[in-house]
Design a protein that fits this description.
328 residues, alpha/beta, Rossmann fold, seven-stranded mixed β-sheet, four-stranded mixed β-sheet, 17 strands, binds S-adenosylmethionine
Length: 328
Protein backbone atom coordinates (compact mmCIF):
# COMPACT_ATOMS: atom_id res chain seq x y z
CA UNK A 1 0.00 0.00 0.00
CA UNK A 2 1.22 3.52 -0.88
CA UNK A 3 2.40 5.84 1.90
CA UNK A 4 -0.29 8.50 2.05
CA UNK A 5 0.57 12.20 1.76
CA UNK A 6 -2.09 12.50 4.45
CA UNK A 7 0.39 11.11 6.93
CA UNK A 8 3.25 13.43 6.10
CA UNK A 9 2.13 16.88 4.90
CA UNK A 10 1.38 18.26 8.37
CA UNK A 11 4.82 17.23 9.67
CA UNK A 12 6.45 19.43 7.03
CA UNK A 13 4.17 22.30 8.05
CA UNK A 14 5.09 21.85 11.73
CA UNK A 15 8.82 21.71 10.97
CA UNK A 16 8.84 24.73 8.66
CA UNK A 17 6.70 26.97 10.85
CA UNK A 18 8.63 26.25 14.07
CA UNK A 19 9.88 29.57 15.43
CA UNK A 20 7.51 31.56 13.17
CA UNK A 21 4.38 33.54 14.14
CA UNK A 22 2.38 30.42 13.30
CA UNK A 23 4.02 28.16 15.91
CA UNK A 24 1.57 29.14 18.68
CA UNK A 25 -1.29 27.93 16.44
CA UNK A 26 0.12 24.50 15.59
CA UNK A 27 -1.93 22.63 18.21
CA UNK A 28 -5.14 24.41 17.21
CA UNK A 29 -4.53 23.62 13.53
CA UNK A 30 -3.78 19.99 14.36
CA UNK A 31 -7.11 19.80 16.25
CA UNK A 32 -8.96 21.41 13.32
CA UNK A 33 -7.41 18.97 10.87
CA UNK A 34 -8.36 16.09 13.16
CA UNK A 35 -12.03 17.07 13.38
CA UNK A 36 -12.56 18.37 9.83
CA UNK A 37 -10.17 16.25 7.77
CA UNK A 38 -8.44 13.19 9.24
CA UNK A 39 -11.57 11.84 10.92
CA UNK A 40 -13.65 12.11 7.71
CA UNK A 41 -14.00 9.47 5.00
CA UNK A 42 -12.51 10.46 1.64
CA UNK A 43 -13.90 8.48 -1.30
CA UNK A 44 -10.94 8.63 -3.70
CA UNK A 45 -8.06 8.92 -1.20
CA UNK A 46 -6.69 5.40 -1.83
CA UNK A 47 -6.98 5.82 -5.60
CA UNK A 48 -5.05 9.11 -5.53
CA UNK A 49 -2.44 7.82 -3.05
CA UNK A 50 -1.81 4.87 -5.36
CA UNK A 51 -1.69 7.12 -8.44
CA UNK A 52 0.81 9.42 -6.71
CA UNK A 53 3.02 6.46 -5.77
CA UNK A 54 3.38 5.44 -9.44
CA UNK A 55 5.36 8.61 -10.28
CA UNK A 56 9.11 8.02 -10.44
CA UNK A 57 11.42 10.27 -8.44
CA UNK A 58 12.34 13.04 -10.86
CA UNK A 59 14.94 15.74 -10.41
CA UNK A 60 14.19 18.82 -12.48
CA UNK A 61 17.23 20.70 -13.78
CA UNK A 62 15.35 23.93 -13.22
CA UNK A 63 11.98 25.31 -12.17
CA UNK A 64 10.34 28.69 -12.58
CA UNK A 65 7.34 29.57 -10.42
CA UNK A 66 7.37 33.24 -11.42
CA UNK A 67 6.10 32.99 -15.01
CA UNK A 68 2.46 32.81 -16.19
CA UNK A 69 3.16 29.23 -17.25
CA UNK A 70 4.60 27.66 -14.09
CA UNK A 71 7.40 25.41 -15.31
CA UNK A 72 9.06 22.54 -13.50
CA UNK A 73 11.72 20.46 -15.24
CA UNK A 74 12.08 19.66 -18.89
CA UNK A 75 11.28 16.71 -21.06
CA UNK A 76 14.87 15.40 -20.95
CA UNK A 77 14.61 15.07 -17.11
CA UNK A 78 11.94 12.36 -17.51
CA UNK A 79 12.91 8.76 -16.80
CA UNK A 80 9.65 7.41 -18.28
CA UNK A 81 8.02 8.15 -21.64
CA UNK A 82 6.18 11.44 -22.11
CA UNK A 83 2.96 9.51 -22.85
CA UNK A 84 3.28 7.57 -19.60
CA UNK A 85 3.94 10.74 -17.61
CA UNK A 86 0.98 12.51 -19.20
CA UNK A 87 -1.30 9.55 -18.44
CA UNK A 88 -0.22 9.66 -14.78
CA UNK A 89 -1.02 13.39 -14.59
CA UNK A 90 -4.43 12.69 -16.10
CA UNK A 91 -5.28 10.48 -13.10
CA UNK A 92 -5.68 13.79 -11.23
CA UNK A 93 -8.23 15.36 -13.62
CA UNK A 94 -10.07 17.70 -13.69
CA UNK A 95 -7.22 20.24 -13.66
CA UNK A 96 -9.00 23.54 -13.09
CA UNK A 97 -6.35 26.10 -12.03
CA UNK A 98 -3.09 26.74 -13.86
CA UNK A 99 -1.43 26.65 -16.40
CA UNK A 100 1.53 24.42 -15.54
CA UNK A 101 4.22 22.77 -17.59
CA UNK A 102 5.63 19.71 -15.84
CA UNK A 103 8.63 18.09 -17.48
CA UNK A 104 7.60 19.39 -20.90
CA UNK A 105 3.91 18.41 -20.56
CA UNK A 106 1.64 21.44 -20.76
CA UNK A 107 -1.36 21.20 -18.44
CA UNK A 108 -3.83 23.49 -20.19
CA UNK A 109 -6.19 23.98 -17.25
CA UNK A 110 -9.85 25.07 -17.35
CA UNK A 111 -8.89 28.50 -16.00
CA UNK A 112 -6.23 30.93 -17.13
CA UNK A 113 -5.41 31.68 -13.49
CA UNK A 114 -2.46 33.74 -14.73
CA UNK A 115 -4.91 36.31 -16.14
CA UNK A 116 -6.41 36.79 -12.67
CA UNK A 117 -2.89 37.19 -11.22
CA UNK A 118 -2.08 39.81 -13.88
CA UNK A 119 -5.16 41.80 -12.82
CA UNK A 120 -4.11 41.59 -9.14
CA UNK A 121 -0.38 42.37 -9.23
CA UNK A 122 -0.50 46.06 -10.22
CA UNK A 123 -2.70 46.89 -7.22
CA UNK A 124 -1.20 45.05 -4.24
CA UNK A 125 1.62 45.92 -1.83
CA UNK A 126 4.93 44.16 -2.40
CA UNK A 127 4.97 40.57 -1.14
CA UNK A 128 8.73 40.67 -0.51
CA UNK A 129 9.47 38.95 2.84
CA UNK A 130 5.76 38.87 3.67
CA UNK A 131 3.68 36.13 5.28
CA UNK A 132 0.72 35.51 3.01
CA UNK A 133 -2.44 33.45 3.34
CA UNK A 134 -4.66 32.36 0.43
CA UNK A 135 -8.15 31.24 1.46
CA UNK A 136 -9.66 28.86 -1.12
CA UNK A 137 -6.35 28.48 -2.95
CA UNK A 138 -7.42 25.64 -5.29
CA UNK A 139 -4.35 23.59 -6.24
CA UNK A 140 -2.05 26.44 -5.22
CA UNK A 141 -1.37 28.13 -8.58
CA UNK A 142 -1.50 31.63 -7.02
CA UNK A 143 0.45 30.44 -3.93
CA UNK A 144 3.37 29.58 -6.23
CA UNK A 145 3.14 33.01 -7.83
CA UNK A 146 3.11 34.65 -4.35
CA UNK A 147 6.21 32.72 -3.33
CA UNK A 148 7.97 33.72 -6.56
CA UNK A 149 7.04 37.35 -5.77
CA UNK A 150 9.21 37.13 -2.62
CA UNK A 151 6.81 35.94 0.10
CA UNK A 152 8.72 34.32 2.97
CA UNK A 153 5.77 32.03 3.77
CA UNK A 154 2.79 31.18 1.57
CA UNK A 155 0.00 29.28 3.31
CA UNK A 156 -3.08 28.19 1.38
CA UNK A 157 -6.18 26.43 2.57
CA UNK A 158 -8.76 24.63 0.48
CA UNK A 159 -11.20 21.88 1.47
CA UNK A 160 -11.32 20.16 -1.97
CA UNK A 161 -9.33 16.94 -1.72
CA UNK A 162 -8.43 16.72 -5.41
CA UNK A 163 -6.74 20.15 -5.24
CA UNK A 164 -4.80 19.05 -2.16
CA UNK A 165 -3.51 16.05 -4.14
CA UNK A 166 -2.61 18.18 -7.19
CA UNK A 167 -0.63 20.49 -4.87
CA UNK A 168 1.19 17.50 -3.32
CA UNK A 169 1.92 16.11 -6.78
CA UNK A 170 3.49 19.38 -7.99
CA UNK A 171 5.49 19.76 -4.76
CA UNK A 172 7.06 16.34 -4.99
CA UNK A 173 9.12 17.69 -7.90
CA UNK A 174 10.29 20.76 -5.94
CA UNK A 175 12.74 21.23 -3.07
CA UNK A 176 11.27 22.00 0.37
CA UNK A 177 9.84 25.49 0.00
CA UNK A 178 7.95 27.62 2.56
CA UNK A 179 4.64 26.86 0.86
CA UNK A 180 1.82 24.79 2.39
CA UNK A 181 -1.75 23.79 1.66
CA UNK A 182 -3.92 22.76 4.59
CA UNK A 183 -7.14 20.96 3.60
CA UNK A 184 -9.46 23.13 5.71
CA UNK A 185 -12.13 25.81 5.28
CA UNK A 186 -11.64 29.47 6.18
CA UNK A 187 -14.07 29.07 9.06
CA UNK A 188 -11.87 26.31 10.57
CA UNK A 189 -8.86 28.59 11.08
CA UNK A 190 -7.87 30.52 14.22
CA UNK A 191 -7.70 34.34 14.13
CA UNK A 192 -3.93 34.32 13.50
CA UNK A 193 -3.60 38.14 13.57
CA UNK A 194 -0.19 37.75 11.93
CA UNK A 195 -0.48 37.68 8.11
CA UNK A 196 0.73 40.67 6.09
CA UNK A 197 -1.51 39.90 3.11
CA UNK A 198 -4.60 37.72 2.97
CA UNK A 199 -6.12 36.70 -0.35
CA UNK A 200 -9.71 35.53 -0.82
CA UNK A 201 -10.23 34.95 -4.53
CA UNK A 202 -13.51 33.47 -5.69
CA UNK A 203 -14.71 32.36 -2.24
CA UNK A 204 -17.08 35.03 -0.81
CA UNK A 205 -20.05 34.04 -3.02
CA UNK A 206 -19.73 30.44 -1.82
CA UNK A 207 -20.34 31.52 1.77
CA UNK A 208 -23.86 31.54 3.22
CA UNK A 209 -22.83 34.35 5.52
CA UNK A 210 -20.48 36.69 3.66
CA UNK A 211 -19.99 39.06 6.60
CA UNK A 212 -18.63 36.18 8.70
CA UNK A 213 -16.12 35.50 5.93
CA UNK A 214 -14.99 39.16 5.92
CA UNK A 215 -14.68 39.13 9.71
CA UNK A 216 -12.52 36.01 9.50
CA UNK A 217 -10.25 37.65 6.90
CA UNK A 218 -9.81 40.64 9.20
CA UNK A 219 -8.85 38.30 12.05
CA UNK A 220 -6.11 36.60 9.98
CA UNK A 221 -4.31 39.91 9.28
CA UNK A 222 -1.85 41.83 11.38
CA UNK A 223 -2.56 45.48 12.07
CA UNK A 224 -1.91 47.42 8.84
CA UNK A 225 -2.12 44.19 6.80
CA UNK A 226 -3.80 44.05 3.40
CA UNK A 227 -6.76 42.00 2.19
CA UNK A 228 -7.09 41.21 -1.51
CA UNK A 229 -10.60 40.01 -2.24
CA UNK A 230 -12.15 38.97 -5.53
CA UNK A 231 -15.77 37.97 -5.87
CA UNK A 232 -18.75 37.86 -8.23
CA UNK A 233 -20.70 41.11 -8.34
CA UNK A 234 -23.70 42.56 -10.17
CA UNK A 235 -24.21 46.08 -11.53
CA UNK A 236 -26.29 48.35 -9.33
CA UNK A 237 -26.31 50.87 -6.50
CA UNK A 238 -25.29 50.51 -2.85
CA UNK A 239 -28.59 48.74 -2.11
CA UNK A 240 -28.29 46.07 -4.81
CA UNK A 241 -27.52 42.46 -3.89
CA UNK A 242 -28.53 39.43 -5.97
CA UNK A 243 -29.43 36.23 -4.12
CA UNK A 244 -30.12 33.65 -6.86
CA UNK A 245 -33.40 31.81 -6.45
CA UNK A 246 -31.66 28.51 -7.07
CA UNK A 247 -28.62 27.95 -9.32
CA UNK A 248 -26.40 30.68 -10.71
CA UNK A 249 -24.48 29.77 -13.90
CA UNK A 250 -25.48 26.17 -13.05
CA UNK A 251 -23.68 26.38 -9.67
CA UNK A 252 -25.81 25.38 -6.68
CA UNK A 253 -23.54 26.96 -4.05
CA UNK A 254 -23.75 30.67 -4.95
CA UNK A 255 -25.36 32.87 -2.29
CA UNK A 256 -24.72 36.63 -2.36
CA UNK A 257 -23.65 38.78 -5.34
CA UNK A 258 -23.41 42.41 -4.17
CA UNK A 259 -22.91 45.50 -6.33
CA UNK A 260 -19.39 46.96 -6.00
CA UNK A 261 -20.78 49.76 -3.78
CA UNK A 262 -22.62 47.27 -1.55
CA UNK A 263 -19.44 45.19 -1.26
CA UNK A 264 -17.48 48.25 -0.14
CA UNK A 265 -20.08 48.89 2.57
CA UNK A 266 -19.89 45.25 3.75
CA UNK A 267 -16.13 45.49 4.01
CA UNK A 268 -16.19 48.79 5.89
CA UNK A 269 -18.82 47.44 8.27
CA UNK A 270 -16.64 44.36 8.84
CA UNK A 271 -13.89 46.73 10.05
CA UNK A 272 -11.65 47.30 7.01
CA UNK A 273 -10.24 50.74 6.13
CA UNK A 274 -9.30 52.28 2.75
CA UNK A 275 -11.64 49.93 0.92
CA UNK A 276 -11.33 50.35 -2.85
CA UNK A 277 -12.58 48.42 -5.88
CA UNK A 278 -9.57 48.39 -8.21
CA UNK A 279 -10.80 46.19 -11.05
CA UNK A 280 -14.05 44.90 -12.54
CA UNK A 281 -13.92 42.18 -15.16
CA UNK A 282 -16.55 40.12 -16.96
CA UNK A 283 -15.24 36.56 -17.23
CA UNK A 284 -14.67 35.54 -20.85
CA UNK A 285 -15.00 32.11 -22.41
CA UNK A 286 -11.31 32.39 -23.23
CA UNK A 287 -10.43 32.66 -19.51
CA UNK A 288 -12.65 29.74 -18.37
CA UNK A 289 -13.16 26.92 -20.85
CA UNK A 290 -13.17 23.15 -21.25
CA UNK A 291 -9.82 21.68 -22.31
CA UNK A 292 -8.19 18.29 -22.67
CA UNK A 293 -7.46 18.52 -18.91
CA UNK A 294 -11.00 19.54 -17.81
CA UNK A 295 -13.50 17.90 -20.11
CA UNK A 296 -16.73 18.75 -18.23
CA UNK A 297 -18.99 21.72 -19.02
CA UNK A 298 -17.41 25.15 -18.58
CA UNK A 299 -18.43 28.82 -18.85
CA UNK A 300 -19.76 28.66 -22.46
CA UNK A 301 -22.25 25.98 -21.30
CA UNK A 302 -23.30 28.04 -18.27
CA UNK A 303 -24.38 31.06 -20.37
CA UNK A 304 -27.58 31.68 -22.34
CA UNK A 305 -26.81 30.32 -25.84
CA UNK A 306 -28.59 33.36 -27.37
CA UNK A 307 -27.11 36.05 -25.09
CA UNK A 308 -23.64 35.66 -23.60
CA UNK A 309 -24.32 38.55 -21.20
CA UNK A 310 -26.77 36.33 -19.33
CA UNK A 311 -26.38 33.11 -17.44
CA UNK A 312 -28.34 30.01 -18.41
CA UNK A 313 -30.89 31.02 -15.69
CA UNK A 314 -31.26 34.60 -17.00
CA UNK A 315 -29.08 36.37 -14.40
CA UNK A 316 -26.28 38.79 -15.39
CA UNK A 317 -23.24 36.82 -16.68
CA UNK A 318 -20.32 36.35 -14.23
CA UNK A 319 -18.52 39.61 -13.50
CA UNK A 320 -15.87 39.87 -10.82
CA UNK A 321 -14.66 42.78 -8.70
CA UNK A 322 -11.23 42.99 -7.10
CA UNK A 323 -11.17 44.89 -3.82
CA UNK A 324 -8.19 45.92 -1.72
CA UNK A 325 -8.46 47.12 1.88
CA UNK A 326 -6.43 47.40 5.08
CA UNK A 327 -6.85 46.26 8.65
CA UNK A 328 -6.62 49.36 10.90
C1 LIG B 1 -13.87 29.54 -7.53
S1 LIG B 1 -12.60 28.61 -6.75
C2 LIG B 1 -11.32 29.84 -6.65
C3 LIG B 1 -9.93 29.27 -6.58
C4 LIG B 1 -8.80 30.28 -6.58
N1 LIG B 1 -8.81 31.06 -5.35
C5 LIG B 1 -8.87 31.18 -7.78
O1 LIG B 1 -9.30 32.31 -7.63
O2 LIG B 1 -8.52 30.75 -8.86
C6 LIG B 1 -13.19 28.52 -5.09
C7 LIG B 1 -12.33 27.66 -4.18
O3 LIG B 1 -12.71 27.88 -2.84
C8 LIG B 1 -12.75 26.66 -2.16
N2 LIG B 1 -13.72 26.86 -1.05
C9 LIG B 1 -15.06 26.74 -1.07
N3 LIG B 1 -15.56 27.04 0.15
C10 LIG B 1 -14.52 27.36 0.94
C11 LIG B 1 -14.38 27.75 2.30
N4 LIG B 1 -15.45 27.85 3.10
N5 LIG B 1 -13.14 28.01 2.79
C12 LIG B 1 -12.05 27.90 1.98
N6 LIG B 1 -12.13 27.53 0.68
C13 LIG B 1 -13.33 27.27 0.17
C14 LIG B 1 -13.16 25.63 -3.20
O4 LIG B 1 -12.72 24.33 -2.86
C15 LIG B 1 -12.46 26.17 -4.45
O5 LIG B 1 -11.18 25.63 -4.62
Amino acid sequence: MAISVFDTFFEKFIKTTRGSDLEPFQDELAASLESHFFSKRHGRKTEWDDALATFPTLEPKHFDLGQDLIQIGENSDLTISTEDFKAKLKNFMPWRKGPYELFGTNINTEWRSDWKWQRIVPHISSLQDKQVLDIGCGNGYHLFRMLASGAKLALGIDPTLLFFYQFQLINRFLPDLPIHLLPLRGEHLPAFGSFDTVFSLGVLYHRRNPIDHLTELLGFLNSGGEVVLETLIVDGDANTVLVPEDRYAKMSNVWFLPSPDALEIWMSRAGFKHVRVVDINQTSIEEQRATEWMTFHSLADFLDPLDSNQTFEGYPAPKRALVIAQKP
